[in-house]
């Protein structure tokens, strides 16, 4: 079982979410590498609080600051992509669009960076369905990225315009203090802008501070409230009642038909559907939303007390992953059943050792041929074909 678990986890690393996370992280590294190299060269001076920050910013290049912020944001968002977070996907796409715009106006390696960025953006759009998660982690990453970017903008902008304040700001602690006071809209009045440029800059900090803080709080609190409310209203109540039932994984036509047949016969059925998916199940159906290859989702669906767990997804590989997860958390008396959409995958599906493997493709084709040839069809033959027994 441990070997199968390791194999499953290794295969999960090859899924689009992980691959795109690596590509986005590399895009971010590409952006910050020149800035980091310059900063490392001047590291001894940076540690000196009395450093001439205006001179340092001029050496690094004030125009390089947006690239650094974008690169750092992409690297942080890559973690969210690995977690399949929809928020990280949307934020990464926005950052990549901005990177593409900057690359167009860049003279050094702009075309190469633009091409790479466009390819990664297209892949994110193609595999958007892979990112259907919503978690506190994703919200925290968004809050960290947006707040950090705003802080860099405020601190370095304040240092760059330091001479345009009531008391010239030339050191990092004072710039940090003024940024915090402005972003939080406290406004003690001990430091204030005296020129039009500095006033507009301070106004931008205040507006963006309010926006970032409000958005960050909603991004973190939203999943907490939504997830807990859903569990309280539905999940917790249903979880108590989930026993001696059938768990159907997927929204395929076969899954819908099996669900209808079981409900018609009075059986209790719990469905596991991908988050944000469109399906034709009744509104009063017992549905758990999430990845059916996740052990936590299967536990929530009552896998330990289920009679059967049926992997009826359209993708054979996803059915295999779901069976592996189910065998980890299922009860001793729980049986696992895997649908094989393509009969050539029967040997591969059997390797994950579900209790039953069935192939509608093999069943349908064999019955049609035997009917055309006038051969005998009995219950034993149908059972043999239905469960994919090629022997």
TrEMBL record:
Domain RCK N-terminal: 243-358
Compartments in which it is found: Cell membrane
Swiss-Prot/TrEMBL GO biological process terms: monoatomic ion transmembrane transport; potassium ion transport
Gene Ontology CC annotations of this record: plasma membrane
One Pfam family hit: Ion_trans_2
Assigned keywords, A-Z: Ion channel, Ion transport, Membrane, Transmembrane, Transmembrane helix, Transport
Transmembrane segments: 12-32, 65-83, 88-105, 111-128, 140-162, 174-193, 200-225
PROSITE patterns in the record: RCK_N
Membrane topology: Multi-pass membrane protein
Name of the protein in question: Voltage-gated potassium channel
UniProt source species: Pseudoalteromonas nigrifaciens
Name of the gene: kch
């Amino acid at each position: 079982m441990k070997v199968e678990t390791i194999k499953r986890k290794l295969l999960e690393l090859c899924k689009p979410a992980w691959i795109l996370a690596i590509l986005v992280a590399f895009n971010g590294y590409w952006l910050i590498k020149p800035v980091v190299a310059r900063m490392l060269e001047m590291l001894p001076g940076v540690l000196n609080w009395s450093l001439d920050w205006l001179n340092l910013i001029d050496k690094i290049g004030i125009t390089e600051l947006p690239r650094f912020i974008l690169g750092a944001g992409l690297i942080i968002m890559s973690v969210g992509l690995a977690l399949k977070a929809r928020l990280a996907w949307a934020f990464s796409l926005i950052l990549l669009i901005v990177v593409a715009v900057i690359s167009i106006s860049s003279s050094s390696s702009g075309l190469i960076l633009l091409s790479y960025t466009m390819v990664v953006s297209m892949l994110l759009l193609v595999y958007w369905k892979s990112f259907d998660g919503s978690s506190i982690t994703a919200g925290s990453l968004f809050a960290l990225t947006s707040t950090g970017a705003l802080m860099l903008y405020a601190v370095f902008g304040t240092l760059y315009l330091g001479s345009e304040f009531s008391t010239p700001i030339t050191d990092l602690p004072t710039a940090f203090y003024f940024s915090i006071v402005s972003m939080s809209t406290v406004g003690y009045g001990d430091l204030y802008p005296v020129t039009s440029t500095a006033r507009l800059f301070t106004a931008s900090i205040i507006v963006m501070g309010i926006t970032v803080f409000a958005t960050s709080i909603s991004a973190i609190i939203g999943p907490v409230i939504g997830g807990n409310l859903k569990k309280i209203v539905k999940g917790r109540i249903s979880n108590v009642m989930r026993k001696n039932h059938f768990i159907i994984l997927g929204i395929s036509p076969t899954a819908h038909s099996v669900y209808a047949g079981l409900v018609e016969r009075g059986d209790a059925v719990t469905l596991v559907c991908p988050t944000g998916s469109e399906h034709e199940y009744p509104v009063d159906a017992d549905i758990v939303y999430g990845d059916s290859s996740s052990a936590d989702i299967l536990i929530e669906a009552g896998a330990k007390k289920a009679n059967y767990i049926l992997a009826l997804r359209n993708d054979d590989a996803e059915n295999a992953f779901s069976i592996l997860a189910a065998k980890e958390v299922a009860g001793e008396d729980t049986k696992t059943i895997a649908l094989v959409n393509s009969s050539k995958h029967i040997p591969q599906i059997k390797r994950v050792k579900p209790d039953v493997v069935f192939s509608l493709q093999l069943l349908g084709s064999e019955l049609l041929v035997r009917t055309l040839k006038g051969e005998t069809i009995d219950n034993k033959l149908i059972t043999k074909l239905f469960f994919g027994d090629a022997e």
